[in-house]
Amino acid sequence: MKNIVLITNVGSGTHDEEIVQSAADRLGESLSVEVVATCDRGELDTTLAALGDRDLVVAGGDGSLHMAVASLHSQGILHDTRVGLIPLGTGNDFARGAHIPLDHLEAADVITAGRDCWVDILVDDSGNVVVNAAHIGVGADAGIEARAWKAALNKVNLGKVGYAVGAVVAGFKTTGYHLKVVADGEVLTDGSRRVLQVGVGNGSRIGGGTRLTPDANPTDGFANVIVSFAVAPRDRFLYGVHLKRGTHDERGDVVTARARQVEVSGEPFYCNTDGELIGPLRDRTWTVQPQAFRMALPTASQAADD
């Protein structure tokens, strides 16, 4: 077990600072821990460039984990770095899918006494990485709709409600997209039909626990792909119901696949990548990079309940 650099966001509130310190104290019972607060990608790059042979622990959510992995990848040191996660985000989707406990002390124990696993990433044709999931269509549209609502509701400390409002608005407004989706050379849809949603999952969850690609496993060398054609109003509603239950992949208007490379092209679309919106795009290709880095994941006795 190596010594640790624990990174956190300099903009964290007092409550999160107390949690980070508590987690650092637990880790410090058996290891030397340096806590570093970074405010942007430049500071993060500088911190990780000086990591040396120490392990990295990310105290944050999906965005923080994504940024750390992207920084390590761009510097060519990802494969040589062991990563741990103290989930502090709003959604914590990668942690939920990997059954990492959301309790900070239990998560710290996973880092010191869990099991080391090789974890995959996805790399797109622009060189950007995906740690958890990318999705196109109604979920990404919800993020766009949520922007204005979140800004308004933040004024009364209800910013998180903005995401739910955005999802409802997008669900009513969307008419789908003409997109071609190809998984390892197999055409899942040729663009002639409108699709409601395309998901490419390294991890299984999005949006605070929704199982978009229920069987995705970030250690198996494959991305799980889901394409929904549920564009009619009633079908959109029923798809949403099944999505919340995690049974949407059983619907007749949903196609699934496992692949090492996924290509999406067609009319302009936005894509949600590890919680961040990018676009508009006309095409995007993701390729699995297997065993990209080592990560502390829970043993069977440490795993959080599904």
Short characterization:
The chain folds into 2 domains: 4-121 and 293-297, Rossmann fold, CATH 3.40.50; 133-288, Sandwich (Tumour Suppressor Smad4). It contains 8 helices and 16 strands.
Q: How would you characterize this protein structure?
A:
With 306 residues, the chain is α+β, with helices and mostly antiparallel strands. The chain folds into two domains: 4-121 and 293-297, Rossmann fold; 133-288, Tumour Suppressor Smad4. The chain is 31% helix and 37% strand. It is built from eight helices and 16 strands. It has helices at 14-27, 41-49, 62-74, 93-97, 104-113, 138-154, 161-173, 233-245; strands at residues 4-9, 33-38, 55-60, 82-87, 115-124, 129-130, 133-137, 177-183, 186-195, 197-201, 205-206, 210-211, 223-228, 254-259, 261-273, 276-297. Strands 1, 2, 3, 4, 5, 6, 7, 8, 9, 10, 13, 14, 15 and 16 form a 14-stranded mixed sheet that branches. A hairpin with a 2-residue loop joins strand 15 and strand 16 (276-297). The radius of gyration is 19 Å and the shape is elongated. The two termini are 28 Å apart. The model has no long low-confidence stretch (mean pLDDT 90).
- Judged by helices, strands and strand pairing, the structural class is alpha+beta
> What is the C-level CATH assignment of the largest domain?
Mainly Beta
Ends: how far apart? 28 Å
Radius of gyration from CA coordinates: 19 Å
Main sheet record: 14 strands, mixed
Morphology call: elongated
Strand content: 35-45%
Instruction: Indicate how many domains the architecture comprises.
Output: 2
Count the strands? 16
